[in-house]
Amino acid sequence: MRTTPGSPRAWLRRHPLFGDSALAAVLAGVSIAATVVIGTGDTSGYGPAKAPDALSVTLIVLGLAPLVLRRRWPFVLLCVAALPQIALAALHYDGGSTAVASLILLYTVAAYRGLALSLAAAAVAALAYALKVILDDDPANWTRHTFAMVVAIAVWVVGRSVRLRRAYLAELVDRAERLERARDADTRAARAEERSRIARELHDVVAHHVSVMTVQAAAARKVLDTRPEAAKDALMAIEEMGRTAMREMRGIVGVLRTDGETGELSPQPGMGDLPGLVDQMREAGLRAQLWIEGERRILPPGIDLAAYRLIQEALTNSLRHAGPAARAWVTVRHEPSELLVQVEDDGLGGTGEFARGPDDRPGHGLVGIRERVALYGGILRIGPRHGGGFEVRARFPLKD
């Protein structure tokens, strides 16, 4: 049963000391009033009771006072509360509602403490009741004793059930929180991976097209005065290359839209677009050639895009760093169990890694290539070519 915030029950749950104090005061008042009104009547079941006096009232108050702090030290207070009750039985006073205090403390131990301590509390309550029975003038009243035992067992079982239910609900809440945290972590990881993929795609698109446009612009500037028609052709190629770059960038960035719009979607490039890529590089001034060996087969989309981006990045770096008279060769070999991609040039590229000019800053091309190849379990080699130049070679395993 859920508690409405701001209700009296919710306030009492936030201030348990007030409720327990009120409970102890009510039980004490009822017990004292009952013993005073009834007088010497047998209300406790321990035989003829003495007339109430200051001692009996004091013992009743001491027997019910532990209820005030029952949530803090229930087991200790259960032991303390048993002493005034035993004293009342030994002196043949009417104990009033002091037995109820023992039941409440027994329930508190069972509901808020572990199994071992709750069993110890049950043993203490049984021992205290046995001592009161021994001190009773009528210990053979088995009906009353059996009823008291059944009530005590029922109270203990209810307390344990409440504790187990509370622990079960706490476990469900904790599990839900763990699942929520795990889901948030998975979402953040997926977003980071998607951002990394988009960054690689943007780099490949921008680096390739801007590099080609830069070379075309430089060529147009050199022949602008002497060969205006050639400069016009170079400017038209730059215009077309810029439109292509914008179209691809819209397709990539379109997935980042959050306002419900859809970007201009177009198929991702693949190995079938290699002839067009090589033609672009030739128009930009790189003497590139393409060889495709083996029986062509349909490649997985991821490997298809990764191999294309690798060739695009390698040719772009050859265009930028190999020199004006360099040649480049692209070899694609389809084998039954793997795809071999090799790009090499005979230019003046640097050693060890993709060379960079004095005006270039380290980019993400090499990192992106390594990530793409490693993602599909491939093997990558980047370095100087035997006999001069530079070489990029990758092997992608193909599964049936």
Brief account:
This protein is α+β, with helices and mostly antiparallel strands. The protein has helices spanning 8-14, 16-38, 54-64, 74-90, 98-112, 115-135, 142-223, 228-253, 274-283, 301-321, 365-375, and strands at 287-293, 327-334, 338-345, 379-384, 390-397. It is 61% helix and 9% strand.
Description:
This protein has eleven helices and five strands, in the order H-H-H-H-H-H-H-H-H-E-H-E-E-H-E-E. With 400 residues, the protein is α+β, with helices and mostly antiparallel strands. The chain has two domains: 8-140, no CATH class; 191-397, 2-Layer Sandwich (Heat Shock Protein 90), CATH 3.30.565. Helix 10 (301-321) links the parallel strand 1 and strand 2. Helix 10 runs antiparallel to helix 11 (365-375). Mean pLDDT is 78; it is low at 40-47, 259-264 and 351-363.
What's the topology here?
Blueprint: H1 8-14, H2 16-38, H3 54-64, H4 74-90, H5 98-112, H6 115-135, H7 142-223, H8 228-253, H9 274-283, E1 287-293, H10 301-321, E2 327-334, E3 338-345, H11 365-375, E4 379-384, E5 390-397
Helix pairs in contact: 2-3, 3-4, 4-5, 4-6, 5-6, 5-7, 6-7, 7-8, 7-10, 9-10, 10-11
Tell me what the CATH architecture of the largest domain is. Answer: 2-Layer Sandwich
List the uncertain runs: 40-47, 259-264, 351-363
Q: How do the strands line up in the largest sheet?
A: 1-2-3-5-4
Overall pLDDT metric: 78
Largest sheet: 5 strands, mixed
Through-space gap between termini: 58 Å
CATH T-level topology of the largest domain:
Heat Shock Protein 90
Helix-strand pattern: HHHHHHHHHEHEEHEE
Q: Count up the helices.
A: 11
Number of strands: 5
* Share of residues in strands: 5-15%
